[in-house]
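Co-fold these.
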Amino acid sequence: MKTNRRFVTATAVVITAVLMLSGCGSTGQPSAVKALTGAGATFPYPLYFKMFDVYAGATGVKVNYNSIGSGGGIRALTDKTVDFGASDAYLTDEEEAAMGAPVLHIPTCIGAVVLSYNLEGNPALSLDGPIVADIFLGTIKKWNDPSIASLNPGAALPDLPITVVHRSDGSGTTSIFTSYLSAVSSHWNSAVGAGKSVSWPAGIGGKGNDGVAGMISQNKGAIGYIELVYAEQSAMPAASLRNSSGAFIKPSLSSSAAAAIGILPDDLRVMIVNSPAPDAYPISAFTWILVYKEQQYAGRTLQQAQALHNMLTWVLTDGQSVNESLYYAKLPQAAVEKALALVNSMTYGGATIAQ
Amino acid sequence: MVARQSRSDRRELVRERVFDAVSLTAAVALVATIVLFFLQLFIASRDSRAAFGLPFLWRSEWNPVTEQFGALPMIVGTLITGFGALLVSTPFALGVAIFLADYASKRVAGPVKSLIGLLGGLPSVIFGLWGLFVLVPLVSRFEVWFGHLVGSEALVTAGTTGVGLLSAILLLAIMILPFSASLILESLIVVPAELREGALALGATKWDTIQNIELPYVRRSTVGALVLALGRALGETMAVTMVIGNGIRMPHSLFDPSNTLASAIANQFLEATSPLYISSLIELGLVLFVLAILINVAARMILRRGVET
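Predicted complex below.
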């Protein structure tokens, strides 16, 4: 009887241990050359979904993209469980060091963040960076504030409190928006700063673009930031912003693409907010695909590296024709050329991959 | 005959042994899961514990940009919404349970019980949507009315959106009601009929019987039901996120936006990249885990004291 019980206990412990451990061993290594796997940002997901669908039709190479968030994409690439990651913010030096090997930033499109609002009759609104910063700092509290009125002499601005709406979840959109505010307002830069999540001094948070848009449309007097794609699709009002050359620019595909015209660094690791280009909408940014420069890692084959190289080249050339149908701005030619140079610098075992 | 007998004996013995092993496995796995949960949270929050130590619990700054993290606003938001919801929903839960056990006819009780089950099974995002589009505007109107009533300039002019602690409390109260109500009802139903009949035979009214016989009889299981309901309120994520306003600041009134441990984790984890930030979010999970255990232990101690006196 005693041995019996011991036997039962031992069996139980073994079964438990097996159950517990069986969850730990799985990896997402793609095995076939005819498939590539990527993970990351949610913002470009509709674009990538469409692009990779077209690409599979044209070449037979399937690309699986999981929109698990930029943070998850960076983790997956660090763990080497995917062929590429995707992020709305470029890697900080610290994050790149954690990757253990050089990473290339390949931009795929340009996104813009717009300020949407809910006022009686939704008049066209013009704002500038310092005013937007003061609104989000909570120092401009009412719509009829003289600073807003001076930029909008025609509009009837009500004596209504401003309700600030921001994202509650960490997001590339917040990163782009707060980078802009930090660039145009020293007060914002020192009090809050820029990041995917920040410590908001005022306002309420909504989850995702739809959460923020919902809060805006439910509250008279609300203002918040959402992606251009989302504002276009749901026909929400968007404020014009004064750019660094003094012009008031309405957010659009062409005005956000214009932000990337000018001097770009060769590694394309750059925030193009507050662009010096004269007709640029100032809250614009790249979104990137991240790949290791050296492709021979974690047992990858040369064919797999070539498949990735071909896919990235396609995204930067033929694939760009998909962008505007989905409200993502195309990369300007100068950016495409620099990005192609980056793709062609990928190596396998030290030798160049480009055919 | 004898041989057949012993074969079936042996088969029975094997069956017993297998059953023993399976049920013991289930029990060990349950305990092991909880212990491993705790260990995993403890290990993964190492960076955060090393950087902030115990003051993590009472620091009120949560700033991912400067990487200064403290859990106090989330702990406060979690406790206020959890206990607030319990306070609001308990009278209703008791009322519903007593009504169904003692007053309602079978024709009424059946449908009401299945409706309660239905309410308990609704996905929380549905509650969240209802909260956002129906409850929040009502709370916003109440807020303006209340602001005028107490003559508070700040309440009326600060942009009354309706999202905040009060909306979260009311929504959670509705969400946990089915749990506490049906658990209390289950225990009321099993109050022995002799006790109830005895009281009635002694001339007690229905109310006397409920007050002096039934409620004392089910006190223990009622506290258990409320602790379970509180556990659900503390851990609720999606619905709370939609109505609480997600401000990570110390709230000054019930109308202020706030945040809870669970919703902060759900909101921020996906896009967190720096090791210290991730580690701090995991420590929030650890705090929630410990909080849930503490509440369970406290409820047990209250119960034990209740039994002794």
